[in-house]
Amino acid sequence: MTTANGHVNGAESQVENVIIIGSGPAGFTAGLYAARANLSPLLITGNEYGGQVSITYDIENYPGFPESLSGPDLVEKFKQQAEKFGTRVEFDYVSEIIVDQHPFVVRTQNGNEYQTRSIIVSTGARPRYLEVPGEKEYTGKGVSYCATCDGFFFRGKDVIVVGGGDSAAEEALFLTRYASRVRILHRRDQFRASKILQDRVFANEKIEVVWNTVVTEIEGEGGSVTGVNTRNTVTGEEGYLDTDGVFIFVGHLPNNELFPGKLELDEDGHLITDRKMRTNVPGIFAAGEIQDKVFKQVATSVGQGCAAAMSATRFLEELEAGYSLDLTVDPREFVAPKVVA
Ligand code: NAP
User: Fold this and answer.
1) From the CB of 164, is ligand 1 less than 6 Å away?
2) Which of 81, 269, 283, 307 has the most CB atoms in a 10 Å sphere around its CB?
3) 68 CB under 6 A from ligand 1?
4) Does domain 15-126+252-340 have CATH number 3.20.20.480?
């Protein structure tokens, strides 16, 4: 198997075996496995190095680290281990992929162009916006999507957290380190968050939960947030709450800008893969939150990254063995559950 560099700007013009797009847990794990298969993978980090885990303060549920560790520390360990076996890490952003010819072509923001026999997509997801008036205007001026990044600026202040999932619960708990009061506004009367996080939220004296409430507008004065307009989702009653900061955790959207018209996406914008992490184009695989709309854990992303690299390795072996490649033939197989009479 050729492991030469596939950079086509300048003298080098050979073909990469595998390019991994994205540097979260799925991407680095794919790098580790592809490197150990002697494929000399090239991992292009994207602009959010480490992905969402890199803005997580404390990771308590990644196996093997019972004392917990910070997101940036875990990302560093992932990177070290992938590089140890030969993954090449490029700090760049993929701006275009061409997948209707083989080798595929990958172009980047820094003006690089690569040819590659296979691609593993692990571009992850980004926070969903609330999409209410004032949100854009006050982002960075009291509106935030990352407690770990911005919590420090709210020492002794009042903050509102919007959302009812694991992120809202976890980040609200983190904010109690700094804020004098944290109110969680949730649109229903029940959290979606895991039981252990719910218990911690209810036990924390600094946290108040405001049920059945949505934010309809974020207000501010002199360049900083002063409060939010609200609506009760049951009674329709409108209200106003004073606050210094609004932290929004209402889910995530897959980073799929590169793929419409090229790779098959579901109605929510996730790449559709089979159990072997194959997309509809042979030689292109996907792992992590770009294709996972169900689990979205570090542990599951790591597993999917491993599976994608193993499938890419198999694909490259078959290519090397002379199997014919037809890019128009969807390689995926969706296995129906066995019905037991
Ligand atoms: P999520 O589970 O999708 O929860 C989003 C929350 O925002 C839901 O409670 C939802 O309300 C609410 N919401 C959505 N749109 C809204 C809107 N327009 N206005 C008001 N509220 C709105 O998202 P997440 O909390 O970011 O978690 C994403 C995934 O990552 C999950 O699978 C989660 O388990 C995982 N995660 C895990 C951990 C951990 O294991 N420690 C930490 C963080 C995230 P409804 O409940 O009514 O739908």
Assistant:
1) yes
2) 283
3) no
4) no
- Name the CA radius of gyration of the chain, rounded: 22
List, by residue number, the catalytic residues: 146, 149-150
pLDDT tens readout for residues 127-141: 999 999 999 999 989
Which of 61, 131, 146, 187 is the best mutation target for the ligand 1 pocket, counting ligand atoms within 8 Å of the beta carbon and taking the most? 187
Structure tokens at 110: 């820094």
Closest ligand 1 atom to residue 166 Cα is 25
| Distance in angstroms (rounded) separating the CA atoms of residues 248 and 147 | 9
Residues paired with 158 in a beta bridge = 181
For 51, other C-beta atoms within 10 Å of its C-beta total: 29
- Cα separation, 43 vs 299, whole angstroms: 20
CATH of range 143-248; options 3.40.50.1110, 2.60.40.10, 2.70.150.10, 3.50.50.60: 3.50.50.60
pLDDT of residue 274: 97
Nearest to 160, CA basis, from 128, 130, 200? 130
Compute CA distances 89 → 202, 294, 340, whole Å.
Answer: 43, 29, 48
Alpha-carbon distance 228 to 245, whole Å?
Answer: 9
Give the pLDDT score at 13: 59
Q: What is the pTM of this model?
A: 0.88
Summarised one tens digit per residue, pLDDT across range 95-109 is: 999 999 999 999 999
